[in-house]
């Protein structure tokens, strides 16, 4: 009994009733538009206040207009989905955004028509039944109602009719609630079928998610390369300064100055990347910070800071390479690749001589870093996240990256096409 009462008058039933009444309200413009044509055809000037027959014909004429509008206007589906989630208690997955395919638009049109059509019937009953039920409930109390034109004086002369009138009024109210609950349950059951994501919606959502993950992966590489290089350089600078703190104060001052410069630049890059994450990856090109360093802007500074960390670096740039004329994307990625190559040498080889050579072929930029393998540690056979990040950067531009040990030296070779990603 309690479950039945909850189904008829519970919170969910009331919300679904409101959903149906909203559907009836949305049908009114279509009903009035249909009545413009139905009135002259039936010879009735105002079908809205005319015969019941004219009203039902106007209602039937409105439904095709409802279906057509849902096919034409793309906002019909997001509006319907929002109302269903808020009022119908549907927990299944529903589509997001406008319908993209013809099949999705047809299903949206069917749902919109069902909602407004059923909602109009329930709304009409909601307007008509409660006043009639109140009249029947008040008949035994007010004699004037029994004798009014709204009643049947001959009928209410019988005692049984007067006694049963309140019962009939209560039954009408219960039947109204039952019709509303049944209609609400019907719509809640059909919503996941008609408003579920279509294959095109799922594909678009998957592509959007993949693009978002790609952006976040690029941001993660920026953080790894920038912060990782800075920490490696600062660690070596601080260690060297500690060893000669008493004997070489000039070197200590130079090391502390390099640490200050390195950390300041890295904090700036970290703030830019975190700003992108906070703002939903809306700034910058392709999810990269707008202030990302390039070969043209900071290659010399990178080499200077690395040498200050105690790493001997010999850099050479081929005659065909002009950092100012490189594509911006290639210049940024090349800078990060050089930075990560130097960072790997700092972390894994220590203060060993490193050579960096940047050359240009007809269609690509080639970056080669080499350093002797340390005698105290085994050769590296695949690297960590840094080498994977270099390979990802090269692959996104359509290039290649190889790394490995040979003849007692570690060699990283990256080739970046100058035409951009393919």
In CATH, what is the class of the largest domain? Answer: Alpha Beta
CATH architectural arrangement of the largest domain: 2-Layer Sandwich
Shape type? elongated
Q: How would a crystallographer describe the biggest sheet?
A: 5 strands, mixed
Structural class: alpha+beta
Residue windows where pLDDT falls under 50 for at least 5 positions: 281-290, 378-383
Number of helices: 12
What is the subunit organization of this protein?
single chain
Average pLDDT, to the nearest integer? 80
Percentage of helical residues? 55-70%
Order of helices and strands: HHHHHHHHHHEHEEHEE
Write down the Rg. 38 Å
EC number: 2.7.13.3
Domain Signal transduction histidine kinase subgroup 3 dimerisation and phosphoacceptor: 216-281
Keywords: ATP-binding, Kinase, Membrane, Nucleotide-binding, Phosphoprotein, Transferase, Transmembrane, Transmembrane helix, Two-component regulatory system
Transmembrane segments: 20-42, 54-76, 110-139, 159-187
């Amino acid at each position: 009994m309690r479950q039945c009462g909850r189904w008829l008058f519970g919170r969910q039933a009331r919300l679904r009733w409101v959903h149906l009444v909203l559907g009836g309200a949305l049908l009114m413009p279509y009903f009035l538009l249909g009545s413009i044509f139905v009135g002259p055809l039936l010879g009735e000037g105002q079908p809205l206040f005319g015969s019941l027959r004219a009203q039902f014909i106007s209602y039937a004429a409105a439904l095709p207009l409802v279906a057509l509008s849902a096919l034409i206007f793309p906002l019909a589906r997001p509006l319907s989905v929002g109302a269903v989630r808020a009022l119908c208690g549907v927990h299944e997955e529903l589509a997001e955004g406008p319908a993209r395919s013809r099949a999705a638009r047809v299903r949206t049109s069917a749902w919109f028509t069902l909602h407004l059509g059923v909602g109009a019937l329930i709304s009409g009953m909601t307007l008509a039944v409660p006043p009639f039920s109140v009249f029947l409930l008040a008949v035994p109390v007010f004699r004037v109602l029994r004798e009014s034109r709204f009643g049947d004086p001959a009928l209410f002369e019988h005692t049984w009719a007067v006694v049963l009138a309140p019962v009939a009024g209560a039954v009408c109210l219960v039947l109204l609630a039952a019709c509303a609950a049944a209609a609400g349950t019907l719509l809640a059951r059909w919503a996941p079928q008609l408003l579920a994501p279509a294959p095109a919606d799922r594909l678009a959502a998957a592509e959007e998610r993949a693009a978002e993950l790609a952006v976040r992966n690029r941001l993660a590489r920026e953080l790894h390369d920038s912060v990782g290089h800075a920490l490696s350089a600062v660690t070596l600078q601080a260690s060297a300064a500690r060893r000669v703190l008493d004997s070489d104060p000039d070197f200590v001052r130079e090391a502390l100055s390099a640490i200050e410069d390195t950390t300041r630049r890295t904090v700036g890059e970290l703030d830019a990347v975190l700003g992108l994450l906070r703002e939903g990856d809306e700034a910058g090109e392709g999810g990269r910070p707008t202030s990302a360093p390039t070969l043209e802007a900071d290659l010399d500074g990178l080499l200077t800071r690395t040498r200050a960390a105690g790493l001997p670096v010999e850099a050479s740039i081929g005659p065909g390479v002009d950092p100012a004329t490189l594509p911006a994307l290639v210049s940024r990625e090349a800078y990060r690749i050089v930075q990560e190559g130097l960072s790997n040498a700092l972390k894994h080889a220590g203060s060993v001589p490193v050579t960096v050579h940047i050359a240009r072929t007809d269609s690509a930029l080639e970056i080669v870093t080499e350093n002797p393998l340390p005698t105290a540690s085994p050769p590296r056979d695949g690297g960590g996240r840094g080498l994977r990040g270099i390979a990802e950067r090269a692959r996104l531009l359509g290039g290649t990256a190889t790394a490995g040990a040979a003849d007692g030296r570690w060699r990283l070779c990256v080739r970046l096409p100058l035409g951009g990603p393919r």
